[in-house]
């Protein structure tokens, strides 16, 4: 089913860790990266890429899934939930959400999720770690420059 702006963000553990801590971290020892079986490049932002070799190269670069060790995932989840209990991001204006849901195409994949996942992450990260700035700027940054919008 296509994701819409009304759907809540489903952050990856990597994104939850970044939101919780406000920093980049090396999670190498906590995860296993595997190729995505039956990956369809045609459903991504690279759907217009031509040539077998460029398509193979891009597919090899982005068609990966990260599998977290259960204890590491639980630790990240606890950090993230603690951050959310301290302060919750405000809801986004329903008119903006309606516009994004009805007028924008968020069905294509981003390198690590959908464009909408990316925008919700940017919104939440900015809310927590740049409190003097509006998180809406980061929520809107990608939709204005992509080929589908």
Q: What does this 3D model show about the protein?
A:
It is a single chain. This protein is mainly alpha-helical and 149 residues long. It has 6 helices and 4 strands, in the order H-E-H-E-H-H-E-E-H-H. The chain has helices at residues 13-21, 52-62, 70-86, 94-103, 115-129, 135-140; strands spanning 31-35, 64-68, 109-110, 113-114. Strands 1-2 form a two-stranded antiparallel ribbon. Strands 3-4 form a two-stranded antiparallel ribbon. Helix 1 packs across helix 3 and helix 1 packs parallel to helix 5. The radius of gyration is 17 Å and the shape is flat. The model has no long low-confidence stretch (mean pLDDT 84).
Computed structural class: mainly alpha
Succession of helices and strands: HEHEHHEEHH
Helical coverage, percent range: 40-55%
- From the spread of the alpha carbons, the general shape counts as flat
Poorly predicted ranges (pLDDT <50, ≥5 residues)? none
Termini separation comes to: 20 Å
Strand content: 5-15%
Assembly status: single chain
CA radius of gyration is 17 Å
Number of strands: 4
Number of helices: 6
Q: Biggest sheet: strands side by side, in what order?
A: 1-2
Taking the sheet with the most strands, its summary is:
2 strands, antiparallel
Quote the average pLDDT.
Answer: 84
């Amino acid at each position: 089913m296509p994701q819409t702006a009304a759907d809540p963000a489903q952050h990856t553990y990597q994104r939850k860790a970044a939101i919780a801590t406000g920093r980049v971290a090396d999670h190498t020892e906590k995860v296993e990266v595997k190729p995505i079986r039956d990956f369809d490049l045609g459903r991504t932002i690279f759907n217009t890429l031509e040539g077998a070799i460029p398509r193979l190269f891009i597919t090899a670069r982005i068609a990966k899934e990260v599998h977290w060790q259960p204890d590491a995932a639980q630790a990240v989840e606890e950090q993230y939930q603690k951050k959310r209990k301290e302060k919750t991001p405000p809801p986004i204006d329903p008119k903006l959400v309606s516009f994004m849901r009805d007028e924008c195409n968020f069905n294509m994949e981003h390198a690590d999720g959908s464009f909408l996942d990316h925008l919700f992450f940017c919104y939440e990260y900015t809310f927590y770690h740049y409190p003097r700035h509006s998180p809406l700027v980061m929520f809107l940054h990608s939709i204005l420059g992509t080929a589908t919008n």
